[in-house]
Amino acid sequence: MVECTKKIAKLDLELTVEEWNLLSVGYKNVIGACRASWCIMSSIEQKEESKGNEQNVKLIKNYRSKVEEELSMICIDILTIINEHLIPSATLGESTIFYYKMKGDYFRYLAEFKTEQDRKDVANQSLKGYQAASNTASTDLSPTHPIRLGLALNFSIFYYEILNSPER
Questions:
Q1: Where is the 14-3-3 domain (predicted)?
Q2: N or C: at which end does the chain have fewer Cβ atoms within 10 angstroms?
Q3: CB 87, CB 99: distance < 8 Å
Q4: Which residues contact 2 (CB under 8 A, 6 or more apart)?
Q5: Using only C-alpha atoms, what is the Rg of the chain?
Q6: Which domains does the chain possess?
Q7: SS3 of 52, please?
């Protein structure tokens, strides 16, 4: 599904609601499986480290780094499509908001496993995506619109998990 919807997105036309939902769901399914693998690997790695089992830790770190490479590739793939095709082709406020929200989401996914300056950089890009979506949503969508509510939820997750700012 991802490959087919990716081809449609690269046509540089305004996607229908059904098309951008298919693209979003397709990538969400792919990234969701990788994120779950990464979380499990990180948990197992911590347990093995606490046991002092260096051989297992080495194997787990190796596998976790492969999962991180895959996560990076998926995120970069969809972010390239969003930046080069979807946002420039968007003519409706609703779709523009949705794409900026996706941009915030996929940079947030990168921030979940990046470290140091790389984490700061992708977190900043995520913040910019969410802010752009939020600015447009506040004028173009009602407070109860599903996209605006989803944006508010994901933006709050970003503040809580990535920026460690639960008060926001």
A1: 1-168
A2: C
A3: yes
A4: 23, 26, 27, 30
A5: 17
A6: 2-162 (1.20.190.20)
A7: coil
